[in-house]
Amino acid sequence: MEEYMFDTNPYEEKMNAAFGFFQDELKKVRTGRAHAGMLDGVMVEAYGTKMPLNQVANITAPEAQMLLVTPFDPGNITAITSAIRDNQSLGFNPSDDGRVVRVPVPALTEERRRQLVKQVSEKVEEARIAMRNIRQDALKDAKRMKDAKELSEDDLKLVEKEVDSLMSKMQAQIDEAFKAKEKDVLTV
């Protein structure tokens, strides 16, 4: 009896990595509620170097439309306020009282919400394409092994079944993440 020699684990790992990337991409899409992650891309000029905001301040969302940024060193407050204001992609207008920076997060317009859902849909499509490519690689590698007589026809069928079941699991996770994010974006 020939030992079944095809390992689907590397492909599962690749799928999980692609799903992780997809989740990180989703986090970057704004929702109607304020959350600390909104300021992830902000770099602050502090101590003569550019640093991520979360390394020079604590960021909280005490209410749905407000972010509160508390500098670890009050000497950096002006630089922090400027860095947030100068980040065009955010479009925020922060103010500070010398101790904390308040960042009002404007509610999303209906049109903006639709744009964001479209953005999320595009990320879903990218994730699906990544999954399909990984699936094709796995099947191609298995077929190559069958042609080289390292796998039997039955083994190949087992591999296809296993890879397809992985695919279904990933698709379900992508759909779930999409629905949750869409709900977040559309919730006022």
Automatic annotation (TrEMBL):
- Stretches assigned to coiled coil: 117-176
User: What is the top-level taxon of the source organism?
Assistant: Bacteria
- What are the Ribosome recycling factor domain coordinates in residue numbering? 22-186
Cite the Pfam families for this sequence.
RRF
Q: Which GO terms describe its cellular component?
A: cytoplasm
Q: Which UniProt keywords apply?
A: Coiled coil, Cytoplasm, Protein biosynthesis
According to its UniProt record, where is this protein located?
Cytoplasm
GO BP: any one term: translational termination
Q: Does the keyword Chaperone apply?
A: no
Q: Which GO terms describe its molecular function?
A: ribosomal large subunit binding
Which family does the similarity line name? Answer: Belongs to the RRF family.
Function, as annotated, reads: Responsible for the release of ribosomes from messenger RNA at the termination of protein biosynthesis. May increase the efficiency of translation by recycling ribosomes from one round of translation to another.
Its name, as the record gives it, is Ribosome-recycling factor
Please name the source species.
Answer: Candidatus Nanosynbacter lyticus
**Taxonomic lineage per UniProt?**
Bacteria, Candidatus Saccharimonadota, Candidatus Saccharimonadia, Candidatus Nanosynbacterales, Candidatus Nanosynbacteraceae
State the gene name recorded for this protein.
frr
